[in-house]
Amino acid sequence: MPDIPFMRAHGHVPGPTQRPTAAGIIDGIVAGIPAVALLWISGALDVMSRSLKLPELLVPELQLLALAIAGAFYGRVFGRAANDRDGGWLFGMSYGFLVWMLGPATLLQWVLRAPLAVGRPALMLFGAHLIYGMTLGFLFPHIHTLLQRDLE
Amino acid sequence: MFATGIECSYPTVENGRWRLDQLAETKHYQFWRRDLELVRELGLKYLRYGPPLHFMHLGEEKYEWSFMDRVADTMQQLGIVPIMDLCHFGVPHWIGNFQNADFPTLFAQYAASFAKRYRWVQFYTPVNEMYVTARLSALEGLWNEQLRSDRGFVTAIRHVAAASVLAAEAIRRERPDAIFVNSESSEFYQPCCPDREIVRIADFENQRRFIALDLLYGVPVREDVRQYLFANGMPREEYEWFMNQDVKGRAVLGVDYYKWNEKLIDSDGKPESLGELFGWYVITKQYYDRYRRPVMHTETNCPDAKEAPGWLWRQWHNVRLIREHGVPVVGFTWYSLQDQVDWDIGLSKPLGNVFPVGLYDLNREPRPVAQAYKYLISMYRNETLSEAENLENLEVPGGR
Questions:
Q1: Distance from CA of A25 to the nearest CA of B (A)
Q2: With an 8 Å Cβ cutoff, are A15 and B365 in contact?
Q3: What is the mean pLDDT of chain A?
Q4: pLDDT > 50? residue B263
Q5: Which residues on chain B are in Cβ contact (under 8 Å) with A141?
């Protein structure tokens, strides 16, 4: 991992009691549930399944898998910054925006050669990522605390 | 004595516009109880602790003790032995700065009141890193009075040294068995080349680093340095006063060391950080040979979390070796307990940069060095002189 000052300050070297990757995976799945629920309720999931040409029942599972991987990355890369109980929700929401920008807005558009969704479903997709990020950031320190090892 | 410290600097910058209060920046005011618990969880008993002078000393004979009362009670409950650091790079707004000639007397009054209120406290650092305080405030123009002059520097160093002497005497009146840990930044200047002017600058800086401790311990400075002091405003009778004080008894020479403490005088005559050239052993030996006091390694850290455990062990092996060679080292400190803020830029601006040197980060999660230090402490806990009681009977070969 690049040894840039920001990362060094916020600590990509986990402490001896920390399990940031495991915490990130669990947190990613938990935070993905309200995001996927919003997509389902709003009908955006249906639009996505048509764009991806995948069965509608498979899309939520793939979405949760992607968000779990994103969560693992969040925990591993931003370890100590992610642990901030006061500002974690805001940091996480910024991360949710980044995931939306890199995933649905850029990567999938490039692969599909067309937008994944347009109009209201696109707005719901964007909102789902912000909710994912905010929940991820808010819950991360709490989930991480539950997974702590002893200093011994 | 294995120790750590709560980083507590509080200088002002931008002509008093900002006070960089590390206790606030590191959220110690919020997490002070947890911080004290963490000290004990690491297996530590000794803690360098700096009460916030700027909040506590409100005016002449006016003090605010409420925060410190709660901290002190908890320290006693937890069995923590504090080394009380009464002045750490700043003064209250109403005193102004280190150019104020009333500072030594006012500070001694505060020290006396502090010692009277907390009679159970035995260890004190009256003024932390006097040389750095004077240099950064009055020679390099960074903190407090922000002067850049030799006269300003000499004035500041006279005042901090006098404050240290008077505070020690005041504390001793309240607590005759008080022990003073006079922490000072160990510095060394190496000339880059044989150019006579560069060699002269390095030589002068290598003398100037001793001025504060020389005045405190009554060790005569070199003749050219004495003339430098007189030429920059120190009255001769004041110099004689310093030389006739006796605060050496029950005083420990605290030697702080970071890898940026050794400096190269470059071809322009400017000091540049050199990294670790000779190391703590060599620099400390220079200080020990001059003062012949028991020594404590009172500060070290490393801003890289991966390298920090290695740096910890390197410092500890320096301590072990110098002790084998006869220097009575009575303590070792990883400084600080928690990460610091803006020390990567020498507290020159209020930017909020996290400086990841703590045993714990600002969320109070341990860094790898915390685990390494806990292991080190458990391994060497029965080391001779690891307890303060041994200081009572300590004899220093050739001690003055």
A1: 20
A2: yes
A3: 90
A4: yes
A5: 363
Residues of B in contact with A151 (CB under 8 A): 41, 366, 370-371, 374
Count CB-CB contacts under 10 A for residue A90.
14
Task: Please indicate whether, in this complex, the C-beta atoms of B367 and A151 are within 8 angstroms of each other.
Answer: no
Residues B303, A151: C-beta atoms closer than 8 Å: no
Model confidence pLDDT, tens digit, residues A27-44:
999 999 999 999 999 999
Decide: helix, strand or coil at residue A4. Answer: coil
Please give the model's pTM, rounded to 2 decimal places.
Answer: 0.88
| Per-residue pLDDT, A2 | 46
| pLDDT over 80 at B277, yes or no | yes
Contacts with B389 (C-beta within 8 Å, 6 or more apart), sequence order: none
Q: pLDDT tens-digit profile of B67-115?
A: 999 999 999 999 999 999 999 999 999 999 999 999 999 999 999 999 9
**Pick from B87, B92, B166: nearest CA to B129:** B87
Long-range contacts of B65-73 (CB under 8 A, 24+ apart): B65/B117, B67/B29, B68/B118, B70/B32, B71/B32, B71/B36, B72/B118, B72/B121
Quick one: B295 exposed, middle or buried, by C-beta within 10 A (0-12, 13-18, 19+)? buried
Burial letters for B244-260: b for 16+ Cβ neighbours within 10 Å, e otherwise? ebebbebbbbbbbbbbe
Assign A54 to helix, strand or coil. coil
Give B304's pLDDT tier (boundaries 50, 70, 90): confident
Domains identified in chain B and CATH numbers: 2-393 (3.20.20.80)
- The ipTM is 0.71
Residue B2 φ/ψ, nearest 5 degrees = -90, 130
| Residue B334 confidence (pLDDT) above 60 | yes
What pLDDT is attached to residue B318? Answer: 96
